[in-house]
Amino acid sequence: MRRYRDRTLAERDERDRAATEFVLRMSAPQTGSVATEVDSLGVAEPGPYRMLCATVAHRDPAAAAGALRELVAQLSDAPTPIATDGDQALALIPDRPDLLDRLRAAHPTVAACDPNATFAVGISTASGLADLPDARIRATHARRAAHTLRSGVTAAEDLATLHELLAGVPEPIRDAYRTRVLGPLLEQDDSHAALRATLIAFLDHNGSWTRTAEALYLHVNTVHYRIERIERLTGRDLSRLDDRIDLRAALMAAGA
């Protein structure tokens, strides 16, 4: 029995090693047949496929690989190779009509095994073999969104709003963007906090001076004064839709 278990683990490790090499080669120019590569991983279905990307916050990649392995085991008894790249684990699985529902249903059970860590899973759109590199990008973006939104499982097709789209942008880029766009408005004092609140209300009410004033219990002239000050500090013109969108995105990136 011990030998059987050791052999099974060795076979699993070999599959995972091959999967990791395959995923890393996907980022380089293709020199061979992607279909042949997939066949070598033991994925029998002709496709389309979904790429799954997972992390377990504050844990090492082995934890992500173990959690993802447990998650996909809820779908099939067949072993699924798990690749690791940096702090994330990846799996390539055939698409099926109920795939997203089953993964979402199974996620809480797996996540409960380590309640002190965030188990985030991103899922690509269904892709053919030639689109696997793009599938990996989509899965990674969806995984970051799942982590930021604490949604557990997020599929690429779930990203239907600006807020959800921004959630998948790497945090250092979000930080740089909000700092560049909002600038002095991010200062933590009462004056700048009042300006941020006015900007949020102004955008929420589609640029209506009257409704913004009513929402904040201010005189309309005070709203005008604050908006003019916001425009001077940011260099943006709030009568322009493009500038409103930029400021709205920056506020979302700042958690507002």
Q: How large is the share of residues in beta strands?
A: 5-15%
CATH homology superfamily of the largest domain: Reverse transcriptase/Diguanylate cyclase domain
Succession of helices and strands: HHEHEEHEHEHHHHHH
Count the E strands. 5
Radius of gyration, in Å, reads: 23 Å
Describe the strand arrangement of the main beta sheet, using strand numbers.
2-3-1-4-5
Annotation field: number of helices: 11
CATH classification, class level of the largest domain: Alpha Beta
> Which structural class fits the helix and strand makeup?
alpha+beta
Low-confidence stretches: none
Largest sheet: 5 strands, mixed
Distance between the termini: 57 Å
Please, what is the average pLDDT? 86
CATH-defined topology of the largest domain? Alpha-Beta Plaits
The CATH architecture of the largest domain can be named as 2-Layer Sandwich
**Structurally, how many domains make up the residues?**
2
List the helices and strands and how they pair.
Blueprint: H1 2-25, H2 34-40, E1 49-56, H3 61-73, E2 82-85, E3 88-94, H4 99-111, E4 119-123, H5 132-149, E5 153-155, H6 162-167, H7 171-182, H8 190-204, H9 209-216, H10 220-234, H11 241-253
Parallel strand pairs: 4-5
Antiparallel strand pairs: 1-3, 1-4, 2-3
Helix pairs in contact: 3-4, 7-11, 8-9, 8-10, 9-10
